[in-house]
Amino acid sequence: MLTLWRDLVNQESGSADKEGIDKVQAKIKNFLENEGAVVRIVEYEQAGNLLIAEIGSDRTQSPVLFSGHVDTVFKNGTIEKRPFTIRDGKAYGPGALDMKGGVVAFLYAIKALNAAGFAERPIKVLLAGDEEIGHANSNAAEVFVKEAAGCIAAFNCETGFVDDAIVVGRKGVGRYDMEVRGVAAHVGNDPENGRSAIVEIAHKLLAIEKLTDWQAGTSFNVGVIEGGTVPNATPDYAKIKIDVRFADETAIPKFTKQLEDIAATTYVPGTTTTMTGGASFKPMQTTEGVKRLFNLVKEVYAENGFGTPNEKVVGGGADSAYTVIAGVPTVCAMGVKGGRNHSPEEYALVESVFERAKLLADCVLNLNRL
After folding, report:
1. Which CATH class is domain 172-281?
2. Which residues are named in the active-site annotation (predicted)?
3. Strand pairing partners for 41?
4. CATH, domain 2-171+283-369, list 3.50.50.60, 3.40.630.10, 2.10.10.20, 3.30.565.10
5. 288 carries an active-site annotation
6. What is the pLDDT of residues 59-94, one digit of tens each?
7. Which of 30, 182, 221, 358 has the highest count of CB atoms within 10 angstroms of its CB?
8. Which of 131, 179, 200, 319 does the annotation list as catalytic?
9. For this structure, is 147 an active site residue?
């Protein structure tokens, strides 16, 4: 298990690195085929490929699904500085926690089920190659909904929490860009003819920040701003990147219209604004099926002496939203436990990869309780 974990982490697979992502998927394809799976690869030109696998398609009961992604947020070259390393019971390296450790856990849960002669129901796997960028250049979200349909349960092995929290709900995510074009001018010789794109974008930024509605569960964040060239020229270009988190899918038209209205409002005459983007993840709803599956996980946790997990709703988006949309009871954050994901200090608790593999296998063995 540790060797596979090391090999997956040491193969870089940042979301922009299609070649690296596809190599990781090829390693996993080989592993699953050795376990008797029929594996299909959905190929994309501008995104990492998506892997679909199934063991025992002729079994009569409803399939169980393991899902996740193999892309990371880290740039090429990171592995040279921070290769997979185990130190003081923690595993480090780009994507060790988010979420290559979770992939290893469910792959070995499958291996254990096979070794134990499990044959009650098909086992299915869905692994995206572009989750971290919200499937911007693929139809992976639609594939998840289609392929998950009919499954009895889905275990999304995203980043686990050190306090044993299991995610039963997630907010949706919207990503938007606003770009402003102004008029450049020399601020000493010709200041009156300049039209500042930065001043325009600053007005828009402040207007966007006022849109947050905590009661409705919709929040706005302008996380990136850029523009200008030198201090003695009126800036003729500026751009902001906006992140929106929302609890209810019906909020999408409302906040999109709010942003469009701000984009259409001109604060500095002579400037023009364009807006692009949209919702990249829908919310993961906490359905009755989700609650029942969490209760099963909680029971199996206790039976194995792993403690008592708590249910949690978080703001981060994930593909668990799409398995719920497909009508499948789903729990998320079933991967290895750790913290500081998406940062150079990202770590995973080594012991949790073994614990989670056992937990996942035992949950599958007890799905008839649902």
Report:
1. alpha beta
2. 71, 131 (proton acceptor)
3. 51
4. 3.40.630.10
5. no
6. 999 999 999 999 999 999 999 999 999 999 999 999
7. 182
8. 131
9. no
